């Protein structure tokens, strides 16, 4: 996955194209392997990091969007 700090690119949902699959999470760092929810074929496990001040991040492989729960750890968890 590209580092948005280096490339200026970060995956974002596109209305009408990106599947609407949103999962609430407790941390700004979340793992994704594409197996959540619909049970697709999956993809390599990646760690997704919400940028500072963001409350969601979208996986560039499967388009699952992870949304930070209100009051959750905005500090980022374990640092991946």
How are the secondary structure elements laid out?
Blueprint: H1 4-7, E1 22-27, E2 29-32, E3 46-49, E4 56-58, E5 65-73
As a whole number of angstroms, the C-alpha radius of gyration is 12 Å
> How many strand units?
5
Report the span from N to C terminus: 13 Å
Largest sheet report: 3 strands, mixed
Series of secondary-structure elements, N-terminal to C-terminal = HEEEEE
| Average pLDDT number | 76
General form: globular
- The low-pLDDT segments are 76-80
Portion in strands: 25-35%
Decide which structural class fits the backbone. mainly beta
Read across the widest sheet, the strand sequence of neighbours is: 1-5-4
**Count of discrete alpha- or pi-helical segments spanning 4 or more residues:** 1
Helical coverage, percent range? under 10%
